[in-house]
């Protein structure tokens, strides 16, 4: 895309306009599975998986000022699990290290999924990939999220299905060092939804993990765990939607934090009412307010959220008659909803899992394009 595209609409009640400024990125045709991060120098970082000769590569670029760096390769020629819900991530530690994780698929006839980790001190040279979990059985280890949990460590939260999707699925935590090597592993929840991604954010008090829980009655509501003062809290349901479904919806929560402020967006179909909901906390996730519905009726979910100084942006996917669409709206700190802005239309799988990120004074969104088979990025301005 050679020129900027601008879309604008007026926000009643907010007295301002939202504009979507499309900004090209260095990814090549066929790229998907995008994720935002922050580089060691504090600049915005975008990672993705891209087709290369002989297979695929995990790549990233850093945006400094008004320009992107050249795309850099983390690892190439691996058996990446090419699914919108299995997002590779890059996170920066305060010591300058960049850690990357991704999920690899086993043979076509196998249920094997493994989480791999690599690290770099200069962003160019990466350590040989290491498996991030103890178990080596050909079962699910995936749907991971990662956060810098100390100056020299990162925590990866992921799902483990030792007996397949019909058996109990566990929420696990692996702590890795700046060298990419596992330090410790522990089980956090012994019964979770088997194929919904995890999400983690760092508050001023510690870590907050959001994931889809599970009960023997097949209630699959969003649960949260907090790590504060050196220990994990008891898991609690974020909001009692009481969504009962004898299947895994592959549709999770998204959590964002700034200091003590936390925002979580998620999807539910409880009471046959599909909707994307959003909720705030002002005390690092100890307690939450009442949820607001940001989309209903045609909502498919796949929500993402990011906090700003005066509220939060929430994105999701709606289902149309012939195609799906990526949409976004602003939620003020008081819970007031701005109008819905449509970002893109296309085939659901190629739209991917749209991702939001607020960095500095800018809010960004990334999504896939089924028509042109490309990865799009843009700034949301208000």
Tell me about this structure:
The protein is mainly beta and 382 residues long. Strands 1-2-31-30-29 form a 5-stranded antiparallel sheet, with no helix packed on it. Strands 3, 4, 5, 6 and 7 form a 5-stranded antiparallel sheet that branches. Strands 16, 17, 18, 19 and 20 form a 5-stranded antiparallel sheet that branches. It starts with 5 loop residues before the first strand and ends with a strand. It is 1% helix and 54% strand. The protein is globular and about 45 Å long. It has one helix at 348-351; strands at 6-11, 16-22, 32-38, 44-52, 55-64, 67-68, 72-76, 89-92, 98-105, 113-120, 130-131, 140-150, 153-161, 170-177, 182-189, 199-202, 206-212, 222-228, 231-232, 236-237, 254-258, 261-268, 275-281, 292-296, 299-308, 311-319, 324-332, 341-346, 355-359, 362-369, 374-381. The protein is built from 1 helix and 31 strands.
Strand content is: over 45%
Largest sheet: 5 strands, antiparallel
Radius of gyration in whole Å, from Cα?
A: 19 Å
Average pLDDT works out at 92
| Biggest sheet strand line-up | 1-2-31-30-29
**Dominant shape:** globular
Tell me the number of strands.
31
- Number of helices, where a helix is a run of at least 4 consecutive DSSP H or I residues: 1
Quick description:
This protein is 1% helix and 54% strand.
Question: Which characteristics define this entry?
Answer:
single chain, 382 residues, mainly beta, 5-stranded antiparallel sheet, 1% helix, disordered N terminus
